[in-house]
Design brief:
Layout: H1 2-22, H2 29-36, H3 38-48, H4 57-74
Helix pairs in contact: 1-2, 1-3, 1-4
């Protein structure tokens, strides 16, 4: 159950970064930042939630990471 909560937190964390990534030029410094800035937060979540770095957690959290990025990129807010 703990891994599911952390995966959901990772997904939510990455939605705004995916949105940001979709609005900047590909391979620009901002594009790289939008992908790499959330990583330290994911590591902190792993450490403080005591799920550790077991192999079975990687596919779950990496999937949540990319799904959050994808959902964020698909969000289309009406800009004023």
């Amino acid at each position: 159950m703990k891994i599911a909560l952390i995966a959901f937190a990772v997904l939510l964390l990455n939605i705004p970064f995916g949105y940001w990534r979709s609005k900047v030029r590909k391979y620009s410094p901002q594009w790289f930042l939008s992908i790499h800035v959330p990583i330290p937060f994911v590591i902190l979540l792993r450490i403080y939630s005591d799920i550790g770095f077991a192999f079975y957690t990687y596919p779950i959290l990496v999937g949540a990471f990319f799904l959050g990025q994808l959902i964020g990129a698909k969000i289309n807010f009406k800009e004023a």
